[in-house]
Amino acid sequence: MNTESWIIDEFSDAPLADNRLVKRLINIADCFYSLPGASVSTACGDYPAALAAYRFFSNSRVKPEAILMGHREQTIERMKAYDTALIIQDKTTLDYTDHPATKGIGLCTTTKNSLGLLNHTALAVTTDGVPLGVLARSVWTRDPEQHGKRLTRKIREISDKESRVWLDTLDVSSAGIPSYINTVTVCDREADIYDFFRKAVDDRHNLLVRVAQDRRVMEEGKLLKSEIENKSVAGQITVSVPRDTKNNRPAREAVLAIRYCPVTVRPPKYRSEGSSQVLPCLKLHLISAQEVNPPEGIKPINWLLVTTMTVETLEQALEKIHWYKQRWKIERYHLILKSGCKVEDLQLETVESLQNALAVYSVIAWKLLWLKQESEQQPEELCDKILTESEWQALYCVTHRTPKPPLQPPTLKDAVLMIAKLGGFLGRKSDGKPGIIVIWRGLRRLQDIVEGWMVAHLPVNSQ
Q: Rg for the chain (alpha carbons), in Å?
C-alpha cells in the first residue's frame, strides 16, 4: 500500500459539503504524513498551500466527526478480518498553555493556569495488538469559571459528571460493528466506574478494566481485593518485562501467580443512601496476576482485573490478561500524537479549527503506530506494502551508500531499521528494537531524501 492510496482510502469518503473540501482534506493529510511533527506551514510546503489548510480548518462546514467518518468505516472493514477485536479507551491531556490566544480554549487539568484540551480515544486493535484504527474520539475543554467548584458539591448522577465520556464512547465506538465480531472494551483504572459496568451489563458489552476501587461485595463486611486474595493460585505464567529506559533497568522475566473468581459487587454506598432508585448489584469476574519473588528494589507486577465476561478456567483468565496487555498500545498512540505529530505545537485561531486539525492528525498517528507494529508482526513481508518505489529505493541507496538499488524491495524489518537509523537509532545489540520516536524522525528525513532522489532521476532533456 503506497502513501497516496492509503490516504485516499481513509479520507475520500468524508461526508463534507463540497467535493473540493474532500480533495483539500486528502492533500492536507498527505502533507502531514510526509512531515509528521512539522508546523502546518512547513508540512504544506508553500504559503498558498498553508493558507488553504488554515482556511479548511476554519471552515464552518468542516467538522472533526466528518473528517474521521471515512477512517472509521475503514477501521470497521479491517475489523471484519478478525473474530475478536479489542476497543481500547483512554484519555490524555493536550497542553496549549503557551497558546492562550486560541479562542475558546479552557482548562485541561485541575490547575487554574493549565490551558488545553482533553482527548478521549477509542482505538481498535487485534488481540495481538495490531492497531486497526480510531472508532471514536471526544475532545473537550473545561470552563475556567467552574474551576474549584467540583470539590464543593457531591455529584450523584453519572450524567452530570465528566466521566460520562466513558459510557458515551462505549456506545459510539460499538455502533455499526457487525454482531459476528466479538468486541471487548479494555480500559485502565480510571474507567473503574460503577455506572460503566452497569451499562456494559445492561447492554451486553464485553468490558475488561483494571481495578482502582476496593468495592464492597455481597458477603457482609468483605471487599473486592480480600475476596480474590483468599482464592488459591490457579497457575503461573512467565512474562517478558521490557527494558525500562527511564529508570535504567534491563529487560527481565517475571513469574506471575494467577487467581480468578466470580464476584457480586454492590453499588456505591453514597449512591444508595437517601435515594429512591434501587441500584442493582453486578455479577462480574475477578482476575489477579501477581508477581512472585520480584527482584530487590523492583516494584512487583500486580494486576487486578474485573470483567463482565465469564472466567471459569485458567485458559480464560490467561486470555483476558493477554488482552489487557494490549492496552499500552493506546499509550503509544497518544505518545505519537503528542511527541511524534507534535499536536501541542499547533497554533490555530479557534478551538474549532484546532479540533479539525487534531482529527486529521489522529489518523496520521494511527498510521505511524501501525507502521511500527506491522514491522514487528510481519517482519519478512516486503516493504513495498508501506513504502512507494521511490521511497524504498532512496532509503536503501542512502543507508547503504550505493547509487544502485536492489531489484527487490527490502523486508519490512530491514526497511524500518533503515528508517530508524535515519532518525538517530544506532542499532547496537544493547539498543533493542527501535522506538516509534526515532522511526517518525527517520520518516521525516526520508521525505527530504526522496525529493532529492526523484530530482536526480528525472529524465535528462537533450535539447
A: 24
- The answer to whether residues 387 and 375 touch, using CB atoms and an 8 Å cutoff, is no
Please name the residues in contact with 405: beta carbons below 8 A apart, sequence gap of 6 or more: 392, 393, 396, 397
SS (H, E, C) 109-167: CCCCCCEEEEEEEEEEEECCCCEEEEEEEEEECECHHHCCHHHHCCCCCHHHCCCHHHH
Bridge partner residues of 116 (DSSP) = 95, 106
Average pLDDT, the chain: 87
Nearest to 92 by CA among 114, 108, 74: 108
The H or E element spanning position 304 is strand 302-307
Per DSSP, the three-state class of 235 is strand
Question: What value, to the nearest 5°, has the Cα angle with vertex 269 and ends 264 and 272?
Answer: 95
Cell numbers given for 51:
493558507
Residue with cell 479548511: 56
What is the rounded distance in angstroms from the CA atom of residue 220 to the CA atom of residue 403? 77
Segment 214-253, tens digit of pLDDT: 888 877 678 888 888 889 999 999 988 877 666 677 778 8
Burial grade of 332 (CB within 10 A; 0-12, 13-18, 19 or more): buried
Q: Which of 217, 198, 219 is nearest to 266 (CA)?
A: 217
Q: Could you tell me the CATH number of the domain that includes residue 111?
A: 3.90.350.10
Q: Which of 318, 340, 362 is the last residue of a domain?
A: 340
Last residue of a domain, one of 340, 358, 390: 340
Band the pLDDT of 3: cuts 50, 70, 90: very low
Residue 440: which CATH number? Answer: 1.10.740.10
Helix 47-58 and helix 19-34, axial crossing angle in degrees, nearest 10: 120
Higher pLDDT, 159 or 354: 354
Alpha-carbon span 124 to 227, nearest angstrom: 32
Asked if 186 and 84 touch (Cβ cutoff 8 Å), the reply is no
**Cross-strand pairs, 350:** 103
Instruction: Rounding to the nearest 10 degrees, give the CA dihedral for residues 22, 27, 28, 30.
Output: 120
Specify the DSSP element, H or E, that contains 399.
helix 389-400
Confidence of residue 154 (pLDDT cuts 50, 70, 90): low
In the chain, what percentage of residues exceed pLDDT 70? 91
Return the axis-axis angle of helices 3-11 and 351-377, rounded to nearest 10°: 130
In a domain, 426, yes or no: yes
pTM higher than the cut 0.85: yes
For residue 180 the three cell numbers come to: 459476528
231 DSSP 8-state letter: S
Structural domain boundaries enclosing 166: 68-340
Query: Could you identify the residue written with the cell 534491563?
Result: 250
Task: Note whether residue 317 is domain-resident.
Answer: yes
